[in-house]
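Anyone else keep sequences and structure tokens together like this?

Example one:
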Amino acid sequence: MPVMNQNYKHIIKFDREFFTGKENFTYIGGGSLGGKAQGLARMQDILVEKMRDKYAPLVTVNIPTLTVIATDYFDQFMKTNELYEIAFSDIRNDRLAHAFQKASLPPQLVGDLRALVDQVHQPLAIRSSSMLEDAMFEPFASVYATKMIPNNQFDADTRFRKLVEAVKFIYASTFFKDAKNYIQMTSHTTRDEKMAVVIQEVMGKRYGERFYPHICGVARSYNFYPTGHAKPEDGIIDLALGLGKSIVDDSIAWSYSPKYPKSDPPYNSINELLKFSQTEFWCVNMGKPPAFDPVNETEFMFRHNIAEAEADGTLKYIASTYNAQNDRIVTGTGVKGPRLLNFASLIRAGQIPLNEMLKDMLKLCEDVLGTLVEIEFAVTLDDKGCAPARFGFLQVRPMVVSNEEIDVDEHELLSEKVLAGAQNVLGNGVVETIANIVYVKKENFEARHTQTIANQLEKFNRELVQKREPYLLIGFGRWGTSDPQGGIPVNFGQISGAKVIVESTLPQMDFIMSQGSHFFHNITSFKVFYFSIDHWGQNQIDWQWLESQEIVSETEFIKQVKLKAPLTIKVDGRCGRGVIIHD
């Protein structure tokens, strides 16, 4: 059976060669490539034609070598092993994943995977590419799993076993609770879904027991929170050291407008700038194998302090240093002092034309997809001279931005019937259908309880989604962070029924809003309004009014109330101002 949508010149059937084959984009089996792989396939020919030689010899641009296991093998795997009954059940994720690990892959697929690991000895990223993934309004960003494997074991049998475990884990993630919760918010059901799997080289270099790129990044055509002279349509770029998990899950990055690459983020002081700078990075563990845990997405990933990166020599072209004597930031690492990962040598001094490349890349993707876009990428630099560098194009997905004109005057934020107002709001439009409010109890909130809060919220969400009742969600710190000390570590599936979300800083949990993560991509794609409120600002949450409302359900950390009349929520996307008004 031919691969669906297989109309791309540079994609051929896998010939059991990976790095030594004629093409760097191949497929195994038949059926569909899935949404993520089709997006990359669409860009493959364009990149070859438009970008391959434009910045040579300073930078080489390509899609890292990959092959896609098409969806027919997923169907065979599910049917042969009789997995659908357990897949559609309410079984816990870990038990479901273990059931998939016990199952057998189709023999034809096994042969191709064995041939692949016989020749490849560098880390591989095993990535989801579902049929529903990366649709315009249903992007499924970070809903399914990605697993990195070191693939450096001496014997091919071990490398093969770890690859097989990773493929089965991606298959299992199709039916994890978060994915099921997410799909409930779309027009589809879990039974509509099929999973293709991308096997791709990990961009990066090896430094002892660590493997990682100098730069991971996310570039977006539209900036929901512009600062200084920047406008929303100028876009935003997030850069970080190491694997992309730092940005898409941890929401830690150096953010700047590609139109104003020399402008710093809006911090009050150098100390504050250093406080919120990246201090840790993710890498693939190339050393001693960890404890056997095939159902753990980060089984072979470690997080290290940037001091380890400096020992590796990878901060040379991406860090600056705080010079205490002069009380200023100087580019490079030539002097002693705290390091700031601001990528100044690249985006300000232009040792490679990174910023110009990213602007070109955004424009190119916009032209191809016909809409605003978000792209993920990674960059490796030459350890001795910065260039030649390699730019790896990892993913492209559409962005959704409403053009409806809504006016929210500053005075509206201070009227008597305002539950909450903010000057930093994501979204655009009016919502008048929400009567349920789910909120975290301020008096009981502590960082050590955030994981418990996330788990409890999932239950509230499930009940409201089943009733098809949208709700307003209010909490503290960053929603969607992977750091329990920085906020509430929910994933989008756990709060998928929330149509308006409010986050408030606290004196002990202050932060700068992030918008480069998968979590925020899902929020914008589903047109969820997102309010960010500073605890020290003029606009605050009216806790007294909220506490006076009728309680529907309650736990130690969360309350749900239902109002007699729906709220009116207005957001002006042009200025980022929003207000929530009660009756």
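And example two:
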Amino acid sequence: MTLEKVNILLVDDQPAKLLSYEVILKELGENLIKASSGREALEQLLRNEIAVVLVDVCMPDLDGFQLASMIREHPRFQRTTIIFISAIQVTDLDSIKGYELGGVDYVPVPVIPEVLRAKVRVFAELYRKTRQLEQLNSELERRVVERTAELEASNTRLRESERRRSVALAAGQMGSWDWDVLTGECVWDAGQYRIFGIEPDGFQLTFDNIKRFIHPDDLERIQAHVRNGIEDKATFQTEARLLRPDGTTRWCICAAAVTLDDSGRVVRVSGVTIDISERKSAEERQLLLAREVDHRAKNALALVQAIVRMTRGANIESYMAAVEGRIKALSRVHTVLSQSRWEGAVLGGLVDEELAPYRSGDPDKVVAIGPEVVLQPATAPTLALALHELVTNAAKYGALSTLAGRVKLSWELRHGALDLHWTESGGPTVKPASPGFGTRIVVASIERQLGGKVSFDWRPDGLYCVLSVPRSNEMEISERASRGRRNLEKDHAGVAASGLAIAGSRVMIVEDEALVAMVVADALTELGYSVLGPFSRPADALAAIKDQEIDAAILDVNLAGEMVYPLADVLVARGVPIVFVTGYGIESIERRFADFPILQKPIERQSLQNIFVAANVNAQMAVGGGRAGAVSAAAASV
């Protein structure tokens, strides 16, 4: 290793003595710098890093003591080694003075070369070691600073990673834990405490304490996993129930990894707990809903079957009208219930739907007054069917069959019952000799099915009827049921404003339900339109319109899981007016098609007639904002 040379300053006013010092110290291999005066010595000190100053005590102008004093006054040279050379006998006072001024040694004249070299060598080596130590210390400090910065950055990244992990665990309803099997010691994060419903303060985390909150049946399975170890892999996952201190039960997934010692024994288990209670509840609700849908579907089919079998009509047209009206009444109730997630149907909404076709410019012709009452799903269809029969009878034979007739429907809640008062006035005098089918439906629905009571009073001015339903069959108002009514009103308003003007008579039908397609095709044919289709797949419809022109299209939104929107885009681009058909609500239609006419299933002939304006009347079509121009021909009854 090559040692770095240090600078040695030789100060004397006699050139011969400087030369002798140089000769003596040359073999040290250091850098020798000469100065012939104190002033020149100070200049050399300022220009160079000096390890040792060898200075003659007796010099003109500025002697050795004065030079040493000046050197020590400068902050840079307070630790510079100064060796005095004196040709006179130095007294003890002189020695003390020299040491006070910073001198470290004296060399008398005549100078003994070996002594001078030995003294200078020691202090030069000391300077060199000191500089090396300073450099090492500086390097160490630099490394410490760098390492500290790295540790701080690493800690920052670790804290940020832990924060993200905690956020992710919290968002996923998860908690992490670690269990030392040998000592029984456990470590939980905040999410684990939250899942167990335990406050961290005052709770000792040991397996014996924790297992009290695990369902006994699930605890045995978890312990078996740990006790038997893992056969092919070091992880396991199982579901478990937690029994919280507040008495509630939470379903969780426990996913864990085990650590084995050299003998294959499980010594540590680490993992996460995922709260799946909401998922379990959703699965249970889904199963219950599936059973309920199956039950309601069978009941609805049975009801439709009864309507078809028991309805009477003077001719086929009146029979079809009666059947369609009763089925439509059930459809409206179903729409209200589905939009409230089958929590209930608002009575006012059902009443408005039934009476809407008979409201005219006269606000007093049809009046409905009553508090907001939500009917249970089992009650709503039955009551709606009874109201439909009252409205239908009034339109055929009673107050709604004349311009001067008036109808008022009011309802009130009293202790134990919901009473509906139906009052007709201004119509023809009607007193049937025997109850008709509609009357029998009302009595059977209210009295036999709902356990209520019906009274008919055939007054000269019109029918007065009271329907009394046990209050146990209706429930309190709910926001979701109210929202269902608002959505139904929105649906009705949206369709009612949507008539359609077409420039020809050729209409394409795209519908995957064969019977529904047949009904629509027959109705359009009766209205004087030519039908293209029906098609059950969008691809078939696209192929058909390549070679054939159409004037309008009726499109079912969902065709066996395939959406009809790509076909709709093609038709809109060609300027072809379209009407959507759906079994869902308006909110299920993509927003870009929200303003198009919509028919909801089941479809009535009158609804089709209201949507389509008579062919070739106003043979113009405006296309704006990607929508075929729509003109209102009549209020749609959907």
